[in-house]
Amino acid sequence: MATLTILPSGTTIEAENGTSLMQAIINAGEKLLSKCGGQASCGACHVFITAGRKGVSKMTPAENAKLDTIVGVGSKSRLACQATLLGTEPVTVELLGALSG
Ligand code: FES
């Protein structure tokens, strides 16, 4: 199981390894925008991984290419629909709300 803490609410949940960040965030009852249904093409699910970056899957070329087009992207940026929880260490994710996309 993977432990995920979601900011700014501070909600912490357990999720099955292999669960996408997006699914885990939604399962926790948090809101996450998605305009493309998780296809790495809308960028609305942009989040920051503030801790535990080794606890999520490696970035794919499609995710990397999409992130390159989003304003405000930094070294902690991921697309929640593409990153999956590995369960190797606890992960903290910060939702960006209106800043995304
Ligand atoms: S939901 Fe569209 S890029 Fe993630």
UniProtKB/TrEMBL annotation:
Q: Which cofactors, by name?
A: [2Fe-2S] cluster
Q: Where is the signal peptide?
A: none
Question: Which residues belong to any copy of the 2Fe-2S ferredoxin-type domain?
Answer: 2-99
Q: Domain of life of the organism in this record? A: Bacteria
Q: Which UniProt keywords apply?
A: 2Fe-2S, Iron, Iron-sulfur, Metal-binding
Protein family per UniProt: Belongs to the adrenodoxin/putidaredoxin family.
Return the protein name: 2Fe-2S iron-sulfur cluster-binding protein
